[in-house]
What does this fold into?
Amino acid sequence: MSELFATTGTIAAIATAVVPQQGSVGIVRVSGARAMSIAETLFHTPGRQVWQTHRILYGYIRHPQTQELVDEALLLIMKAPRSYTREDVVEFHCHGGIMAVQQVLQLCLENGARLAQPGEFTLRAFLNGRLDLTQAEGIADLVGAKSPQAAQTALAGLQGKLAHPIRQLRANCLDILAEIEARIDFEEDLPPLDDKGIISEIEKIAVEISRLLATKDKGELLRTGLKVAIVGRPNVGKSSLLNAWSRSDRAIVTDLPGTTRDVVESQLVVGGIPVQVLDTAGIRETTDQVEKIGVERSRRAANAADLVLLTIDASAGWTQGDEEIYEQVQHRPLILVINKIDLVEENQRQNLQSQISNLKSKIFTSAAQNQGIDTLETAILEIVKAGKVQAADMDLAINQRQAAALTQAKISLEQVRGTIEQQLPLDFWTIDLRGAIQALGEITGEEVTESVLDRIFSRFCIGK
It folds into this structure.
């Protein structure tokens, strides 16, 4: 049995971020049979406050032996089963920072609790029937959400919008299995199975599984975000573009070529999608050793990016240097950004249009004048949609683990259909059908192994 599965006893952990000189409140959470006794030992309430569930008490935390004052705090009581873990839970709401919460946690550990493992509070909620696995993963996604859309999708999982269709699919498979097994046990007393009807039911289940699988890329995009690299020759306005887009001065902007020597990052949200924007050093041949390193990093960033913004200087036109960079990045999803458009006349713009007519995705910007940013974001979303990844209006998105289980369920159902079409005995039908049922059960937790739980909950923070 893994250490994570040692879910006995009373556990305690700091449930808020601990940052020196920051944060007004720090919370120490305690869950288990001894939670109330620990609270009664450490917490002292003035006056005649009533110790009842779902009440907040005001008082002082004192060392039980020396009676030394540790902190002035609030105590929140949540008795089983009306708590997150369905156990007795108490929370000490202390002053923020480091010392107060650390001292309170240490007192809890000295008086009957042990330090919680990563994700153990949520694991207990799952094991005690408070949550299923999709809801538990929704909590992890909500904590790590990088955009409002990602948070909404995580909340959908937490509210059971994924669990419900999965349970329905599993129930449909169980109904089919019951029909088949009934014929195996009572063949003489029941009419023959409708093979075509069974195949039709299996196909309906497979279609719904395919619909859920189609949300995997959407979910992955919301969770991890889109990595966008701005590349181009020196002094074409890459840093200005980043600053205008992020509405900040993240990158140094001068008239000197080669100012950016390293990759500068900025985090944005476009159409509900988290976007990591990388402003790279100008790509050109150089003898400067430091600039060479920057150029090499730029090339690596471009190759690792989900989308490349090849930026050129409209006043300079399409140069040989632009062509060489294009040759290096054309294998990546790409948008051509024609910057400094405010510096050219209409006839120059038309000449430039003819030079780049073979490039489908292109936009015109003036980063210095803060023009064209909305058009850039629209172009990015079009690229995303072209890859059949919707950027918004999603209320459901599966993760990698769930996708793997759904894929296995779909394969098992395809094998059931093949078995039926080959007219093999009914016993053979049930083998792969049970495999589909097990795979679907792994998603919500009806059928789950210790290693799966280890993998899921070890990604949580300790206080969750």
